[in-house]
Amino acid sequence: MDWRRWKDSWPHAAHSRFIATGGLGGRWHVQEMGCGPEIMLLHGAGGATQSFRGLMPELAKHYRCIAIDYPGQGFSRPRVSGRYSLDALARDLTSLAWTEGWKPVALIGHSAGGALALRMAEEGLTQNVIGINAALGRFEGVAGWAFPLAAKLMALNPLTATFFSTTTSSPGAVKKLLESTGSEIDEEGQHLYRALVASSRHVDGTLRMMAAWNLDGLITRLPRNAAHTTLIVGEEDKTVPPKVSEIAAARMPDARVVRLPNLGHLAHEEAPGVVAGHVFEALDAALESL
Description:
The structure is a single chain. The protein is built from 13 helices and eight strands. By secondary structure, it is an alpha/beta fold. Strand 1 (16-20) and strand 2 form a beta hairpin. It is globular, with a radius of gyration of 17 Å. It starts with a helix and ends with a helix.
């Protein structure tokens, strides 16, 4: 996506900056807001910082929030090939945090960002993780077949991202895709997702990430993951059903599940104030245990 086109209208653009990634190429798009202990916000696959447009200001009342677009997604430029997997992305983001001097007291991840947060906890960046409909198993619904299929097609044809972007970015298609997650997103949210899907570069970055995504190692190590973990789940989530978080939490030494009625996969966009309240509770409990 072209930042010059969106810098005056992207959510919280005044809080954006760009960080070059040195020898690895590319650059990170980062948004920082608020004061206090630092927390990092990690979006889901196919999203960007706009996913936190409502949640971030709520959390920034008590914390310094740091939200980042992944390589090739949103406004972050693609990096060298081979840096899209869970392990590579976790290490790169952890390295970025150390380089920038960030010391997050917690990582908050939505969907794929929840898995990424747990993997970054393994890297030693934090001891506290909050997942929002964390994707700790196979995607279901539309994402279950669309992402893997598109990722495989992309490996065969470099024009796949352009085709995918062109055929799925209409208002009706995006609305239907969002509704399939079990969430009701307002017109602003739909407009922003249309902008993301209309960008072939964003779609390419998302597909490359999904093509390289493998949770086997992380899932196997869950019984040894000592992070203080809270998994917030929307009971109407059609993409990552609540049972996924319940199964994962049962295998972890220090994890609990909080269920939210009437909310879907994008619960933090539907009801940012409600989700923020549960995040504050989890953060309070985590910091009291330090």
